């Protein structure tokens, strides 16, 4: 699908950017009608569903990912003009300095922190899709400049030579605006930020579920890795900063999908919650604690016919050539 090439890329844990064309082929074989992407993450799968002509609803529990969906999936025709960009890049309206004061010496040079503070003084005057586009471009720029795209480290040791790591955030923001504007396309869609169990399946023909994969070790805490982007999307309003941490993390949000102790019950409840749609499409990775056979058995409790598709996949997470965890098989289950 040519439209998918327009979608801005972000280094996001579990992103389906590379898998989107294959998922589009699978979606095309399923019953027509509206679709839900209940764990929308980077937004690329919701965008894929919309590009396939389906009315689409994207849901995620993070604010910055929901903002991406508002700007690039739910938005039908609004873009940021050259005048909008010039204003967003102009001096601060009120001299605010929360980002500069909070993150000095951490992720970016002082001039970049000052740019983000100033840009937010103008974002506060925007509404609707333009506001979502401006915030999405700011988040994309920050993610592009941070090594590996995650905010768990404050040193340049993961510098992999990408030009974005050494560009001013203002320049990256302008690039991100261009990418976001180019991705806007017509079509009915919506976006919400909330718990997946509060997401109403409604009249959807397809529900796509890509929950966090419970790993044998470590964790799948998105807040830990992307706390700066979550804060940037809200200007840290309503966020609880852990001031004792060097990285200025936000308080972790529990998800039953992220732990091998609770994931089986959580998935069983999830499949039951989305029992109404004609088709259920579930993505899961081979590097999780739950294996394919067990997941298929869980899904078979709620769907009569379940088929499994295996896709070799390399996750764009990590930079070193020996990162074995990047190599995995993506399991896509289709339940009818």
Automatic annotation (TrEMBL):
Catalytic activity: a 2'-deoxyadenosine in DNA + S-adenosyl-L-methionine = an N(6)-methyl-2'-deoxyadenosine in DNA + S-adenosyl-L-homocysteine + H(+)
Keyword Oxidoreductase part of the UniProt annotation: no
Parts of the chain that traverse the membrane: none
GO molecular function term, any single one: site-specific DNA-methyltransferase (adenine-specific) activity
EC number: 2.1.1.72
Keyword Transferase listed: yes
Entries under Pfam families matching the protein: MethyltransfD12 (PF02086)
Enzyme class (EC, first level): transferase
SUPFAM superfamilies attached to this UniProt entry: S-adenosyl-L-methionine-dependent methyltransferases
Entry's Gene Ontology BP terms: DNA restriction-modification system; methylation
Family statement drawn from the similarity comment of this UniProt entry: Belongs to the N(4)/N(6)-methyltransferase family.
Protein name, as recorded: site-specific DNA-methyltransferase (adenine-specific)
Naturally occurring in which organism (per UniProt): Solirubrobacter ginsenosidimutans
């Amino acid at each position: 699908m040519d439209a998918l090439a327009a979608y801005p890329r972000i280094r996001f844990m579990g992103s389906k950017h590379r898998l989107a064309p294959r998922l589009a082929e699978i979606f095309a074989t399923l019953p027509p009608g509206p679709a839900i992407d209940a764990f929308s993450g980077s937004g690329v799968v919701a965008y894929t569903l919309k590009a396939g002509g389906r009315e689409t609803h994207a849901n995620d529990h993070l604010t910055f990912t929901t903002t991406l969906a508002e700007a690039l999936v739910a938005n039908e025709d609004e873009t940021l003009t050259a005048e909008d960009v010039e204003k967003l890049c102009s001096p601060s309206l009120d001299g605010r300095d929360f980002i500069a004061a909070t993150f000095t010496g951490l992720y970016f040079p002082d001039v970049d922190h000052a740019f983000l503070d100033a840009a937010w003084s103008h974002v506060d005057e925007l509404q609707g899709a333009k506001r979502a586009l401006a915030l999405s471009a700011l988040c994309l720029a920050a993610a592009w400049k941070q090594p590996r795209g995650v905010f768990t480290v404050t040193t340049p040791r993961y510098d992999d030579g990408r030009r974005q790591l050494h560009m001013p955030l203002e320049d990256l923001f302008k690039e991100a605006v261009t990418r976001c504007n180019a991705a806007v396309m017509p079509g009915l869609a919506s976006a919400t930020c909330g718990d997946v169990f509060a997401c109403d399946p409604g009249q959807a023909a397809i529900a796509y579920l890509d929950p966090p994969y419970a790993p044998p070790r470590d964790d799948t805490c998105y807040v830990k890795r992307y706390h700066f982007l979550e804060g940037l999307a809200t200007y840290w309003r309503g966020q609880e900063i852990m001031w004792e941490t060097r990285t200025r993390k936000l308080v972790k949000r529990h998800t039953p999908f992220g732990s091998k102790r609770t994931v089986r019950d959580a998935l069983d409840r999830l499949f039951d919650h989305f029992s109404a749609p004609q088709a259920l499409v579930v993505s899961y990775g081979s590097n999780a604690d739950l294996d394919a056979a067990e997941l298929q058995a869980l899904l078979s409790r709620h769907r009569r016919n379940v088929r499994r598709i295996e896709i070799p996949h390399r996750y764009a997470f990590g930079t070193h050539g020996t990162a074995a965890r990047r190599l995995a098989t993506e399991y896509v289950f289709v339940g009818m």
